[in-house]
Amino acid sequence: MSPVLDNLDLYVDGFLTSLRIIVYSLIGCLLLGLIIAACRVSPVPPLRAFGTFWVTTFRNTPLTVVLVFCAFGLPELGINRSFFFFGVLGLILYTSAFVAEAIRAGINSVPAGQAEAARSLGLGFSLTLRDVVLPQALRTVVPPLGSVLIAMFKNSAVVGAFGVGGDLWSTGQILTSARGYETLPVFIGVAIGYLLITLPAGALLQVIERKVAIAR
Amino acid sequence: MRFRRTASALTVAVTALALAACGDDDDGGGGGGDSAEPSVAETPEFEAGTTMAEIAERGTIRVGTKFDQPGFGLENLEGEVEGFDVEVAKIIAGALGIAEGDIEWVQTPSAVREEVIEGGEVDMVVATYTINDTRRERISFAGPYYEAGQQIMVASDDDEITGPESFTENPDATVCSVTGSTPAENIREYLASDSQLVLFEEYSQCADSLSNGQVDAVTTDNVILLGFVSESDGEFKLVGEQFTEEPYGIGITKGDVAFCEFINETLADNEEAYVAAWESTAGQVEGTETPSLPEPQPCS
Amino acid sequence: MSEPSVLYDAQGPRARRRTLIGTVVALLLLAGLVFLAVRRLVDRGQFTMEKWGPLIDPDNEAFDAVWRLLREGVVNTLKAAAVAMVLSIVLGTVIAVARLSLGRVARIPLIGLVELFRGLPVVVLVYFGVRVIDDVGIDLSGWPGGQVFWGLVFGLTAYNMVVFAEVIRAGVASLPRGQREGALATGLTDGQTMRIVLLPQAFRVMLPAIISQLVVVLKDTSLVTFVANYDELLSQGDTIQRNLDNPIQTYFVVALIYIAINYTLGRLAQYIQKRQARSGRVSRPAAATAAKAAGPAQVGGGA
């Protein structure tokens, strides 16, 4: 394990960079996912079509390819931002499709009578959604949404390869290929770093699931 | 390209014939003759138990090279590899009595080169492989067969960056290189902060990013950069002197002195083939000079 | 979108007019953006035949080679995904059955294994499969397909078998209790009950989830590009753009191929799910529970 202990500072930096990618992506993909989900169930046909197009595209393309377009395609369009920005953007675009689908499935699980009652009280589409359906959908949304987000945490590993650098995955790459350390101990260190993120997140998810279940 | 390859094969053939006629080659150049690929020694004899004898006996050689390095080792659309490293490997294979078609090419990106040698998955690695002491702890090097040096490439209209020191003076300037490569490690000491270094999987991605303004410079060995400069129609230029020395060696199993000496002798005996190999590949790029074979380092 | 949504009324004439105006304005804006983007790309030389020709013009000298590479890429991607899928289902079933039949204490190491593999990025698992297994001296190069292929397959399997274990466990749990009780009452042993009665039904319920997961595995094969060389679709794209210097165009075509394959698989999963729900071979509540259990699996994919 000495390669890990010798380079503990690199690992800590890598861990923090990965965490930074994750936090920005988390906020972004929840917001964007909610918007896309709203499009998917909206009364306006073109918005529905847009939502379907979005989900179909990003759910069926490998994250790697999405990231290629963000890192090399957007600059061709004259959009010059940091690679960190592009990496996080790619992860947000990709994950938003899954978030949207999880939310839509939750909305569909709310009994029809709830929405009908809300409408008979005179609430419009957005109020029905915001005040009646979404709060109830939340409890069915939590487990799949949690899985989507934890998958996103893990997917952040791929972002590091697109010019971002300094995250856990890239740290492992540099230690093994440029500094000549053995792969096994170095990547056990990388694996521990990711488990430090995903295992507590999984535990937290279970706690939230139980909380929401009681609220039922 | 196809035509050029044939031409270079012919040059190699002529050279080999000339050498065979001299007949001063006690190790490899036994043959010559008039076969279709005359650079291949016909029945070379080697001391039993040596790597050379083993390879000659087997009739095939496994060579590790890069598949993504224009000018040195690039896999073309037909699945063949082309480049200077590839041609150098063919010279050595020929001296072992192995024809081009019997060479098994193994893709060895920078990260796995020591591993595949240690694991016996290849007989030698010719892959823009800089000789250094860290690597010598795990493997041995024959050669060097080429001396490159690290340099910096920028956009033609850039007057700000004039050399590696510019990154110390201007902490906003970014430089791109390949993850885990020696140039990426070398440039670190000039950087004011780590965030100036942008890392990708391969140099063409760095060149794309320089072209669309995402990075300010690209750094690696000059000969690789020259390839991009010549393709860019004046969009890129090199700046500053080379600030490192990167002797390219041929990686072999640690401690195989006999094989190392054999490779060095073969290269020394085939200098014309060596020049032809250069001129048909990396030498096609404007601004490169045909190298002469460097003095070999002692085998260990 | 066949059934009318309960979330809103059908649009009246005024709403429809507003929608129409909104749509036209949005389309105009979109057209403007596309125009700007295209003009910019033209300026950057991204629409030249030099860049697109090898991909779309059959008369181009590189066209045949390019599409041969892409075809090989698709075949290799499908091959790795299929083998990883079969292994994942087999091992996943073993883990699921073990978890269902083992005692409370004996289950603990198994749960640890599941949590471990579920907690790691797929790309890290692929790295372990391709690079670390090789480094610690396990030689897979003699296996048909080669070392990288099996390394990739093992990496993908490690991740997906635990996903399947969960899917199948949920599938078995979703079956009506009477199935198991009935089987035991007819004198079948525990093992026979599982094998003959419960698992076949669970598989049928889980079939859509299994196909959806195949999409995930298929996309994840592309992660091998970060670790080693295996000529799957994305790597072939790399080779093409390296030779032709047209990354944007090549990756665009590669993305379309991925979308076409995965979209087809997704539709297939939907079709099977609908047919099952209609045919009633799978009881409705079971299908619903299973779909819910499969939810995380369907979306809990890698990259």
From TrEMBL, chain A:
<keyword id="KW-0472">Membrane</keyword>
<feature type="transmembrane region" description="Helical">
    <location>
        <begin position="145"/>
        <end position="164"/>
    </location>
</feature>
<dbReference type="InterPro" id="IPR010065">
    <property type="entry name" value="AA_ABC_transptr_permease_3TM"/>
</dbReference>
<keyword id="KW-0812">Transmembrane</keyword>
<dbReference type="InterPro" id="IPR043429">
    <property type="entry name" value="ArtM/GltK/GlnP/TcyL/YhdX-like"/>
</dbReference>
<dbReference type="InterPro" id="IPR000515">
    <property type="entry name" value="MetI-like"/>
</dbReference>
<feature type="domain" description="ABC transmembrane type-1">
    <location>
        <begin position="15"/>
        <end position="205"/>
    </location>
</feature>
<protein>
    <submittedName>
        <fullName>Glutamate transport system permease protein</fullName>
    </submittedName>
</protein>
<feature type="transmembrane region" description="Helical">
    <location>
        <begin position="20"/>
        <end position="41"/>
    </location>
</feature>
<keyword id="KW-1133">Transmembrane helix</keyword>
<keyword id="KW-0029">Amino-acid transport</keyword>
<keyword id="KW-0813">Transport</keyword>
<dbReference type="GO" id="GO:0043190">
    <property type="term" value="C:ATP-binding cassette (ABC) transporter complex"/>
</dbReference>
<feature type="transmembrane region" description="Helical">
    <location>
        <begin position="81"/>
        <end position="100"/>
    </location>
</feature>
<keyword id="KW-1003">Cell membrane</keyword>
From TrEMBL, chain B:
<feature type="domain" description="Solute-binding protein family 3/N-terminal">
    <location>
        <begin position="60"/>
        <end position="282"/>
    </location>
</feature>
<dbReference type="GO" id="GO:0005576">
    <property type="term" value="C:extracellular region"/>
</dbReference>
<keyword id="KW-0732">Signal</keyword>
<keyword id="KW-0813">Transport</keyword>
<comment type="similarity">
    <text>Belongs to the bacterial solute-binding protein 3 family.</text>
</comment>
<protein>
    <submittedName>
        <fullName>Glutamate transport system substrate-binding protein</fullName>
    </submittedName>
</protein>
<dbReference type="InterPro" id="IPR001638">
    <property type="entry name" value="Solute-binding_3/MltF_N"/>
</dbReference>
<feature type="signal peptide">
    <location>
        <begin position="1"/>
        <end position="20"/>
    </location>
</feature>
<dbReference type="Pfam" id="PF00497">
    <property type="entry name" value="SBP_bac_3"/>
</dbReference>
<dbReference type="GO" id="GO:0006865">
    <property type="term" value="P:amino acid transport"/>
</dbReference>
<dbReference type="InterPro" id="IPR051455">
    <property type="entry name" value="Bact_solute-bind_prot3"/>
</dbReference>
<dbReference type="GO" id="GO:0030288">
    <property type="term" value="C:outer membrane-bounded periplasmic space"/>
</dbReference>
From TrEMBL, chain C:
<comment type="similarity">
    <text>Belongs to the binding-protein-dependent transport system permease family.</text>
</comment>
<keyword id="KW-0813">Transport</keyword>
<keyword id="KW-1133">Transmembrane helix</keyword>
<feature type="transmembrane region" description="Helical">
    <location>
        <begin position="20"/>
        <end position="42"/>
    </location>
</feature>
<keyword id="KW-0472">Membrane</keyword>
<dbReference type="GO" id="GO:0022857">
    <property type="term" value="F:transmembrane transporter activity"/>
</dbReference>
<feature type="domain" description="ABC transmembrane type-1">
    <location>
        <begin position="74"/>
        <end position="269"/>
    </location>
</feature>
<feature type="transmembrane region" description="Helical">
    <location>
        <begin position="248"/>
        <end position="265"/>
    </location>
</feature>
<keyword id="KW-1003">Cell membrane</keyword>
<feature type="transmembrane region" description="Helical">
    <location>
        <begin position="148"/>
        <end position="168"/>
    </location>
</feature>
<feature type="transmembrane region" description="Helical">
    <location>
        <begin position="205"/>
        <end position="228"/>
    </location>
</feature>
<dbReference type="GO" id="GO:0006865">
    <property type="term" value="P:amino acid transport"/>
</dbReference>
<dbReference type="InterPro" id="IPR010065">
    <property type="entry name" value="AA_ABC_transptr_permease_3TM"/>
</dbReference>
<dbReference type="GO" id="GO:0043190">
    <property type="term" value="C:ATP-binding cassette (ABC) transporter complex"/>
</dbReference>
<dbReference type="InterPro" id="IPR043429">
    <property type="entry name" value="ArtM/GltK/GlnP/TcyL/YhdX-like"/>
</dbReference>
